[in-house]
Design brief:
The complex is a heterodimer. By secondary structure, chain A is mostly beta strands. Chain A has no helices and eleven strands. Chain A is globular and about 40 Å long. Chain B is 0% helix and 58% strand. The chains are: A mainly beta, B mainly beta.
């Protein structure tokens, strides 16, 4: 069974640009969550999508957005990049039906560097 | 606001030693608590999930306990090996928004041969 995949694995952008990251969940999983990991702030929740709808949202500015497609693949977009957006972006998937029992399976992450 | 704290921040032990990692959380209204492992520059690997109604879970040399009333969890690693070297993270799933995991800062473990 294939795991969670994320593309691209590495990205270098400059301030002001925008970026789109992609996440393909485990087959059969309908929930995708996104997290930002930085040395200073640790792992922080961005948002969760379930059946193409945003179900939960973290405390990030509107520059961070996402969407989910009918095949459960998800993308997140960051517009007007800032230096502080440099981070490892992780996505995780679950079946999405039962919070108590479900492990979140994480992908390898996308390393974004903003210059 | 849920806060998760992990102690110690770093730990270095000789191979073969048994060790305990600690995790505490401020709000006991949780679905579950999970322990993850992260190797440098990599994603997270799930180790154990303890549902709020459970007291412990075991997988191989790993045993995790949960005391929801006191807001504490421990991860016990038996007979540590150099391959166990990694950062260990605990995370809680709140009742208010189950998918929104709140993570601790992690314990960086080094097992010396």
């Amino acid at each position: 069974k294939a795991g969670v995949t994320q593309t691209p694995r590495y990205l270098i952008k400059t301030r002001g640009q925008q970026v789109t990251l992609s996440c393909s969940p485990i087959s059969g999983h309908r929930s995708v969550s996104w997290y930002q990991q930085t040395p200073g702030q640790g792992l922080q929740f961005l948002f969760e999508y379930f059946s193409e709808t945003q179900r939960n949202k973290g405390n990030f500015p509107g520059r961070f957005s996402g969407r989910q497609f009918s095949n459960s693949r998800s993308e997140m977009n960051v517009s007007t990049l800032e230096l502080g957006d440099s981070a490892l972006y992780l996505c995780a998937s679950t079946k999405g039906w039962g919070y108590g029992e479900e492990t979140q399976y994480f992908g390898p992450g996308t390393r974004l560097l903003v210059l | 606001k849920q806060e998760v704290t992990q102690i110690p921040a770093a730990l270095s032990v000789p191979e073969g030693e048994n060790l305990v990692l600690n995790c505490s959380f401020t709000d006991s209204a949780i679905y579950n608590l999970q322990w993850f492992r992260q190797d440098p520059g990599k994603g997270l690997t799930s180790l154990l999930l303890i549902q709020s109604s459970q007291r412990e879970q075991t997988s191989g040399r790993l045993n995790a306990s949960l005391d929801k009333s006191s807001g504490r969890s421990t991860l016990y690693i038996a007979a540590s090996q150099p391959g166990d070297s990694a950062t260990y993270l605990c995370a809680v799933s709140p009742l208010t928004s189950g998918s929104r995991l709140t993570f601790g800062e992690g314990t960086q473990l080094t097992v010396n041969p």
